[in-house]
Amino acid sequence: MSYEPDDMGAYSVSFPRDFNYGPEDGEGDSAGAVPEHKPRILLMGLRRSGKSSIQKVVFHKVSPNETLFLESTSKVVKEDVTNCSFVVFQIWDLPGHLDYFDSTFDSEHIFGGCGALIFVIDSQDDYMDALAKLHFTVSRAYKINPKIKFEVFIHKVDGLSDDHKIETQRDIHQRATDDLVDAGLDNLHLSFYLTSIYDHSIFEAFSKVIQKLIPQLPTLENLLDIFISNSGIEKAFLFDVVSKIYIATDSSPVDMQSYELCCDMIDVVLDISMIYGEDGDSSFPPDRVKEESAFNTESSSVIKLNNGTVMYLREVTKYLALVCILREDSFKRQGLIDYNFWCFRQGIQDVFELRKKLGLTNGEVAPNGLPDAPKDTLAGK
Fold first, then answer.
1. What is the pLDDT of residue 358?
2. What is the pLDDT of residue 7?
């Protein structure tokens, strides 16, 4: 296989390991700055598996139907998720027809600093070749960087029946795992997700991937658990409002229908804010000023469903929203919920302020651990 010299500049890139977060309110001019070090997520798979469509739908709000006209990726496409999101990282869409472990490429740079590798498999196609490529890729990448999180998206499942989805996932999981065991890679763990760009499954899968790269996740979950237990809330999500990726939730199981309702609620709030909200600020890219910055410190919403359930949204930062699901009887104590929310928001700020002051990078922890939730200040039910 030969490669044109002109294309090589797109591939020989260093991948730092630090995980960074979007700028918070009140940081002045630095709010628009792009951090030098950002975690990298590699998006890999065979050609026409749906990698570019996933990227466009999740991070560019492209309609799924519009992705039908996308051309097959012929070169590495780098996507910075910056300024318009709380979680700051890079996604690299890698063409499926190239061998990145060939001597032509610097595989140490490509995989050495990678945080997660997402391998996309087309569930509606013969996936034997994809499984072979998956095994080849993860086994080589694991030897270069054992800390990579390996994620497998079993994609385009919208065209399969429920039984066929389960059978396909079981078959791919079994074959991929057996190949790794036969190769003596028992310690290499793969996570599998059923995904489609025509529903919210792709957003939930990306949420799970991003959460694995957030070192503060256990503390965020603890904060949410304490908040809902003291407020009579059944479920709570901490959302990145632009991508609709939830960076944390409480310890109770995630119901897909509840997650979809929360995503729809965020869409409603953003749409109304764009029409009736204040003009955007200059810390966002010019083409997205109105859309993203319409969400501000005054943003909140209450939606009452006909089944006696209330959905309550509150702004945490201009990038984050807390969406709660609770019974209508519990919402009668809204003053209590609002007070506990204030304590929760202060706890979130303390978590990230501590890491900022200590200058911690990805994988490092504070000497005495991160601060616990403000238990003494939360009011009980």
1. 61
2. 40
Q: State how far the alpha carbon of 355 is from the alpha carbons of 32, 64, 323, 344, in Å.
A: 20, 38, 25, 17
Other CB atoms within 10 A of residue 116 CB: 20
Q: Structure tokens of 124?
A: 């509606």
CA 138 – CA 117 distance, rounded (Å): 8
Q: Helix or strand or coil: residue 93? A: strand
Q: Is the dihedral of CA 60, 64, 67, 73 positive or negative?
A: positive
pLDDT at 367: 38
pLDDT at 25: 41
In angstroms, rounded to a whole number, what is the distance separating the alpha carbons of residues 50 and 70? 10
Q: How far apart are CA 48 and CA 207, in angstroms?
A: 23
Question: Distances in Å between the alpha carbon of 342 and those of 185, 227, 331, 337?
Answer: 47, 10, 16, 9
Closest C-alpha to 207, from 246, 165, 254: 246
Helix, strand or coil for residue 304?
Answer: strand
Q: What is the pLDDT of residues 91-100, one digit of tens each?
A: 888 888 888 8
Q: Do 205 and 193 meet the contact criterion of CB atoms below 8 Å apart?
A: yes
Round to whole Å and give the CA distance between 51 and 93. Answer: 7
Our measurement of the distance from residue 194's CA atom to the centroid of its chain's CA atoms, rounded to an integer in Å, reads 15
Nearest CA-CA partner of 247 in 265, 275, 274, 223: 223
Q: What is the pLDDT of residues 30-46, one digit of tens each?
A: 333 334 456 789 999 99
Tokens of 327: 């019974």
Distance of CA 264 to the CA centre of its chain: 17
The values of phi and psi at residue 28, to 5°, are 65, -135
Return the pLDDT at 279. 57
Residues in the chain with pLDDT < 50?
Answer: 1-36, 280-290, 360-376
CA 312 to CA 302: how far, in whole Å?
5
* Bridge-based pairing state of the strands 114-122 and 190-194: unpaired
Helices (H), ranges, 187-305? 201-211, 217-231, 256-276, 289-293
Using CA atoms, how far apart are residues 200 and 205, in angstroms rounded to an integer? 9
Residue bearing tokens 């990579």: 148
Element (H, E) at 180: helix 162-182
